[in-house]
Structure to design on (739 residues):
């Protein structure tokens, strides 16, 4: 399978066939996770560094498991315990890592564009594990894998993405991916959390009911509670009443709707517990698929010369 | 007696309505005679055949960083950059460390410039002490020490009450207020213009309305008080509109625009892949804003082109986009950019460009120069319209290299810069 990229900086630079390649590879690799001995030698001798400048549970452990299953040598740098706290710049940290010759650095950073900066100045491959409010490509890929597994396709699906679109890198990457793959996306949220110009890329509504109606997939985004003090919405109570996903609202969607959430959830705010834990929820499937997609990304970028997993 | 004859050039002096082949005789630091075929009478002759001779260009808006940030720029290097860029005078913004808010600091700048400056330096004093926006600085003392205007540039004067009092009080000393127009609550943590591009890149944006709100306020306050306000680095369509309406009502308002806001839009942030040399404040705006600023320049709403020369070290720029310092250097690229992209592309007449860079800046702040009328200071900028050269940041006279224009090939460059009758800089031929 050919994959013509050294980095995964975002969904934006990918062609539909690249996305297809990652999803197909992930589908093939997922089976390894069900084996009694979950390890293949595909990336033996490759060194991967997980450089996380923001807190992360799901994404980081998912990358770490993917690396181990593929037999890469990996280490994770928690920035609180590193020289970053001594005032070292991102570039100096990266250059020092480069001097140890890793094959890949997987980075999460609060500054949009930080992985691009790294890719421009360093030799190793860079995978973006979330940059500011810009992109989170592996999240969009695992979401797409989940949809494709359940629906058999992406093309023609109606996907509602609901919540804080303004600050969400998950929304941006999903919007880009789903548009490239021929799904139709409707964005919903309070007007304060809808960024300017986004209406050029998707249809936008302030009414969650309009977005959910007839949807094949409803993807809820996390609402950060500090947005209240920023004046984006008055209270979590009102947010839940007008923009939260309740059982009643789920009924307006298609009968076989998928309910998704990238986590971590605020139960009772953007999503009611009955919905999160209900029959349509595929939230934990997303997490499992996260490992498979990250295995695929690692394999496609680093595995060119290694042994193919069978 | 020091004399110099510039022979065979095309003289453009908008103040006198001149655009013709004339010789210029300089004596004792002033213009003595401008007429066809002046005899040297023993004066050394500078052959300027094929070149354009203009009154010296004046930059109303530069950050020379001295005192305090000599790692970014000094008066010596900043004025050498000015000379190499065709400027005979620069106005030095007061956001130094310490802030130029007292006569003692102004005098130190004036003395340093006299000793080490390659061109004239006109200090601008702070509007408020420490540029904190709270208490007025001592305008009378600042003026006596050499300040030619007042500004809290880098920061807006957030309080309408303080801006009102500043406009009123400054009238006593006939000083204009140069305002960095920005509503701070709409610009918190922003690192670019707000719009589709900031949405796309996931960067925090500030809306153009945040500038225009303050421009509108300042125009109204200038009208209320009869004070003089000059809008710094105007970047938004709605700001152009506010200035245009203010001028039509006879309000004492003037405005400047920078070459980067005239030539680049926020698309540059995307096209360069988060290059921090596209980060400045005000940010590069939308294409519609850019075109409106250009229209305002062409119809006379905008009086001047100023550089907002903002030198920064590599360390301040080679970081994550939202962490990077705001601003770019401009003194060594401004004139060539305007000659190529404005005059060369037929958007602005050459004589109008000379007015924007010389006549008008002198008029706006009441500075000496801006004309070649006999008796004026012998400050001249000589242009070579045929010269084609690539911008090479590595060869800048400035101590800093932060420019988005590195590598641009431009036609039309400054050739000779004369300050007080002496050649301050000459293009190596």
């Amino acid at each position: 399978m050919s994959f013509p990229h050294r980095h995964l900086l975002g969904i934006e630079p990918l062609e539909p066939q690249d996305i297809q390649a990652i999803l197909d590879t992930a589908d093939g690799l997922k089976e390894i996770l069900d084996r009694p001995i979950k390890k293949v030698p595909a990336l033996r001798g490759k060194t991967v560094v997980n450089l996380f400048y923001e807190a992360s549970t799901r994404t980081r452990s998912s990358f770490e498991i993917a690396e181990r299953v593929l037999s890469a040598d990996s280490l994770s740098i928690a920035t609180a315990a590193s020289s970053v706290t001594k005032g070292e710049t991102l570039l100096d940290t990266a250059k020092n890592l480069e001097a140890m010759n890793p094959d890949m650095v997987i980075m999460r950073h609060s500054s949009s564009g930080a992985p691009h900066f790294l890719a421009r100045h360093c030799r190793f491959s860079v995978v973006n594990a979330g940059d500011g409010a810009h992109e989170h490509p592996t999240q969009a890929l695992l979401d797409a894998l989940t949809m494709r597994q359940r629906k058999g396709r992406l093309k023609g699906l109606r996907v509602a993405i609901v919540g804080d679109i303004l600050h969400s890198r998950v929304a941006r990457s999903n919007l880009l991916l789903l548009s490239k793959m021929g799904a139709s996306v409707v964005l919903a949220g309070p007007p304060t959390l809808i960024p300017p110009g986004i209406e050029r890329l998707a249809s936008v509504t302030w009414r969650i009911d309009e977005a959910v109606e007839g949807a094949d997939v409803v993807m809820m985004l996390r609402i950060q509670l500090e947005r209240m003090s920023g004046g984006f919405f008055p209270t979590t109570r009102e947010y839940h009443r007008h923009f939260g996903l309740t059982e009643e609202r789920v009924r307006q969607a298609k009968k076989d709707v998928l309910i998704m959430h990238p986590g971590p959830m605020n139960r009772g705010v953007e999503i009611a517990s009955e919905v999160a834990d209900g029959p349509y929820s595929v939230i934990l499937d997303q997490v499992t698929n996260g490992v498979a997609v990250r295995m695929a990304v690692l394999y496609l970028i680093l595995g060119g010369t290694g042994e193919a997993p069978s | 007696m020091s004399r110099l004859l510039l022979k065979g050039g095309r003289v453009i002096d908008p103040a006198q309505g001149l655009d013709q082949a004339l010789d210029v005789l300089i004596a004792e630091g002033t213009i003595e005679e401008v007429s066809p075929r002046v005899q040297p009478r023993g004066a050394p002759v500078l052959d300027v055949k094929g070149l354009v001779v203009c009154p010296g260009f004046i930059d109303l808006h530069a950050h020379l960083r001295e005192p305090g940030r000599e790692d970014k720029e000094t008066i010596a290097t900043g004025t050498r950059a000015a000379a190499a860029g065709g400027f005979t005078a620069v106005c030095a913004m007061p956001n130094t460390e310490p802030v130029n808010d007292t006569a003692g600091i102004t005098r130190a700048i004036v003395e340093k410039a006299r000793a080490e400056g390659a061109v004239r330096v006109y200090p601008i004093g702070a509007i408020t002490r420490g540029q904190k926006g709270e208490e007025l600085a001592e305008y009378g003392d600042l003026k006596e020490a050499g300040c030619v205007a007042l500004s809290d540039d880098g920061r807006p004067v957030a309080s309408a009450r303080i801006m009102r009092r500043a406009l009123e009080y400054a009238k006593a000393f006939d000083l204009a207020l140069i305002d960095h127009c920005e509503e701070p609550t709409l610009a918190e943590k922003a690192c670019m213009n707000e719009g589709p591009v900031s949405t796309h890149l996931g960067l925090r944006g500030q809306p153009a309305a945040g500038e225009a709100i303050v421009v509108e306020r300042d125009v109204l306050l200038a009208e209320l008080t009869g004070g003089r306000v000059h809008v710094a680095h105007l970047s938004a369509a709605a700001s152009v509109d506010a200035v245009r309406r203010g001028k039509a009502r006879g309000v004492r308002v003037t405005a400047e625009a920078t070459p980067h806001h005239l030539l680049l839009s926020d698309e540059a942030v995307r096209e360069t892949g988060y290059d921090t040399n596209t980060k400045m404040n005000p940010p590069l705006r939308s294409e519609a804003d850019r075109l409106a600023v250009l229209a305002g320049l062409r119809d006379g709403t905008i009086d001047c082109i100023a550089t907002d020369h903002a030198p920064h070290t590599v360390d301040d720029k080679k970081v994550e986009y939202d962490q990077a310092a705001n601003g770019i250097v401009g003194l060594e690229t401004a004139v060539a950019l305007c000659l190529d992209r404005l005059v060369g592309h037929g958007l602005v007449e050459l004589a109008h460009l000379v007015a924007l860079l010389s006549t008008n800046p002198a008029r706006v702040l009441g500075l000496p120069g801006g004309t070649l009328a006999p008796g004026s200071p012998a400050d001249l900028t000589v242009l070579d319209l045929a010269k084609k050269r690539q911008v090479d940041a590595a060869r800048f006279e400035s101590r800093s290299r932060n420019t988005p224009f590195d590598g641009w090939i431009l036609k039309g460059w400054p050739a000779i810069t004369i300050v007080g009758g002496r050649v301050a800089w000459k293009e190596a031929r």
